[in-house]
Automatic annotation (TrEMBL):
Domain Integrin alpha second immunoglobulin-like: 668-824
GO BP: cell adhesion mediated by integrin; cell-cell adhesion; cell-matrix adhesion; integrin-mediated signaling pathway
KW Membrane (keyword) present: yes
Native source organism of the sequence: Potamilus streckersoni
Compartments, record wording: Membrane
Gene Ontology cellular-component annotations: external side of plasma membrane; integrin complex
GO molecular function: integrin binding
Protein name (record): Uncharacterized protein
Domain Integrin alpha first immunoglubulin-like stretches: 500-655
Amino acid sequence: MQFLKGFHFFKMWRSLMVVFIYSMCLITTSDAFNIMEKDAPVFRGGNLRDSYFGYSVAVHSDGGSDKWIYVGAPRDNDTTLPDIDRPGLLYKCRVNITFCDPIVVDANTFFENITVAGQQRTFIPGKNGQWLGGALDINKGNAFVCAHRWYNQSKKMVGTDTYEKQYFQNGMCYESAASKPTVWLKFPLLTLEGQNFENKTDSRGSVIYYTWGFGSLGIAVHFVGTVYADILIGTPGVRSWTGGFVHLKENNPFYSENKMLPNDTSELIGYAISSGKYFGGEDIYFAVGGPRLDLTGKVLFFKMNSTPYDLNQPFVTLNGEENGKRDENGNMSQVGGYFGSALATADVNKDTFDDLLVGAPMFASKNATGQEEGRVFVYLGSSVLGQFQLQKSLLNGSDALRARFGTAITALGDINMDGYGDIAIGAPYEDEDVGAVYIYNGYTGGLWSKFTQRISGKSVQSGLKGFGISFSRAVDTNDDRMNDVAVGAFLSGDVVLLQSRPVIQLGGIIELYTNGIHITVLNLPSLRNYTLNTNRTYPYFEFEIKFTFPKSQVIQMIVLNVTARVDTLKEQQRFSFLQNNKETLEADYSLSIEQGKIARTPEVKVLVKSSSDLVTPIRFHTKYELVDFTLFKLPQRTLQPVLNLFDGSQTEQPIKTITKEIEFQKDCPNNDCNTNLHLSVKADLKNESELFIDELEFLKLNVSITKTGDPAYGTGLTIIFPKSFKYRNVEKIEGDTDIQCRFKIEESKTRAEAGSSDRPQKTLVNNETVIICSYGNPMRQDGGVKFQIVLVPSVFTETRFQFYFNATSQSKENEWNDNTGTINLEGKRKVVTDFNGVSRPDSVSMRAGRNNYEVKHIYGLHNQGPSSMPEAVMYLKYPYVTMNGKDYLRLLGKPIVNPLPPGCSVSCVELNATFSITTIKDQIHGSIQEKSSHCSIDNCPVYKCVIRNIPPRKIIVVDLTLETNIELPNVLSQGKTFEITSTAAVNIENSTNTVFNTLQHATEIRTRFVPMSPPPEPVAWWIIFVSVLGGILLIVIKIIILWKCGFFKRKRWGAIEKRKSEEAKILVKGDEVSSQENNDEIKQEVTEIETKDA
């Protein structure tokens, strides 16, 4: 037993390793969809580097294991024709070997005489540069290849014995059995009468009119349908490049006719050819492209076998303008777009009518950089004879510059197995000539406008160039019942075989159970309960996914990774999975499915966590990915399958997903609830006309909701209000149900969250808040509820407010007219302002040694609130003294505004920068003790400052810096004390919604200047004269008075003289007394007398 257990474990481990390794291989080799890009077979050939190997391609299958790819190399050298320069070669490549061999088509270079359709054809073939392999097609085992530059060498007699060689590029085609291409039938473009040219006369005079001389037979070749051997061959050079075509039926040629004279446009009819049953029935119509018809290009239609094929009378004509401006850029067919240079036929919308795809590879978009991006037009066939429907959207690939998208087009058949035809389109010059191929899928409306796969040449193999120049018909090359296509890359000389990977079509459904019974409606009371480890109990039901894998698939078993999610319609999930005894919002599975059987995921419990919303359906969303094709071998040469990523019948259905919705059981007839809600709203204000918003403490909005009819499930009230208010709470007034409000988390610009999915709601703007209130689930009573929404004011930037209400439920609303309500309020602001100023410093002492002084006049406008002030204008007048070109008092710079509060702005401009100085000069004359420069008197400069959005309780401060010169006192006040004064006024813009305490302010600022010491004062002459005269007169009067009073007389002067006389006499008589003694005594006496007199 232990051995068996070990053996089984080993087998399981080995299987898991195989799954892992194989999965890694799938991951590294997976492609965008079901065309395999990586490891695609690449064939290389050609004797010359620029042989254009791959310019044309075709695939041949003989019904057995041998598959061949025919490749044209129209510029290659042929070793069997050593004397011919680049005649071109046809190659044959075995699919599973990627090796190519040249085919000898025509080795003759001499005169020939052949019979075609019972007529003799004689010619001397010219094969230099004939482009053998320029066009190629294979159908019903027949290969048809052409050399449209093949020419016939003829002689023209220009004298008696002189001939002149002539060369006419008629073109040559060859046909052979594709399985053994050894014998080739020749079809030259030669007729017995007028085969080369005629002389005609038209408005230009006598001109050479080439009939078949430059017919270029075989620039395009096409087998008609799949059951006919008829061949269409393009002849764009017939009738001087007007063009035409040849219908080769059982080797009998039927030529198109054109009786009109050719013109200079070279229409090139026959450049591309296709055929199909575009209008139903069995009638086949030929589609013939003329890319230069009317310079824009056209496609002409002719009914098969309705000969003659008159080019002047086509059955239908298409020009690309059938719908007018039908694409998003207003593009239509355009001159030089080469509309009609590529054609392909397929039934893309599965309506049994063939559809036509028309390429315009030179089409340029209308933007400035548009350069040959290319377009493809899709024409849908119809049951109305001769009428096509042009698909509105054009195909444009990646819209790459110079890509020439639409150079080649081919029908792929149904490669994704959805029943609709698919298309491949080449853009050979995209990505700097690397090239790309685009895959488009058909659907009910035509061809899906977005490609499902882009295959770049780089993703296939490095070095590819010109990838997408040509396509083969779609053929199964590996017997997996999937069409493959060969693609030419002619610039690098390669051919790529793009093989389709099998597509797996899966069917999947989600099933729900309770008590083993399949349920379609969820009835909560009928559910069983489950108790978690947390001792919490919830109702639950079972969930499982069922997959079907049809027998028609190419593989026997697949493995899927499956992820399921529950309640994806709700942000806050009401349900959860219980997997492995753990709650989760996702359930993961790994599921093996055998072909032809049904696989089920294990049953998982779904817990009902919340019953607040019983109306929004429960959505289950499941995604699955293909993991592996384990244990069973794929059929030989079968590529790894992929899941289908596009279904033409369900284009809107997400790929690789399964969804299911289930509704709750409701208390309404047939679970269909019809109700009629009535909403009434009003603001709870005593006087709406006196609503001072900045003094508002809170705002209450009264709401009343009633109903009639069935219960209202999933009720919701959407309230949209300005962000100037903040939601506070909800207060219920009446009603049996609870009111719950919350903010709307996920914003929707066009719809409110709680409401009918088809009911338009108010468009939101950025400055609005949305709350959602539920008022019953369900609301059963007709009396309904009454409640108040309480809002708190915040910062206001406006005064008009709108409050929008919308009452909804998830029951069907019978009448919407009374479900909405609006409250419009016009609030008022109150603004109290103050305006004053101050000087810094308030006085200035002017001292010696300093030349200039600065003083600041500071003005402050204070918004004391409570609201913001919308706008105020401040006028600032300042003194300015200048004489003889010198500034004595001036403003330094401009007014300076202190840092502004957020949202506030100030702009200042000077109103009168120039003024008269005469007034100031007149003012400084006079004999006053103090002078001033005062702007209420002087003609002063003025600054105007516009202040906007001053927040409440903020001050706007404006500084004026004035500079004075030390000589200003001499100019203004002869050195005495003086003042300078500036004035300011504020005008507040009145507003109908704002109440101001005042609309005007005015104030002034004075600065006192005190000089250091006054200069000496000059004295008037008359003052000096009067002073001197008065002094003299006063002295004279004084002398007279002294004289009258005896001031000039001495009392002892006579005694002294008498004494002196007596003493003299004594000396004379000889009284001998010492003279020295007498003199001393006399001097002493004189001194005593003088002392006494004094």
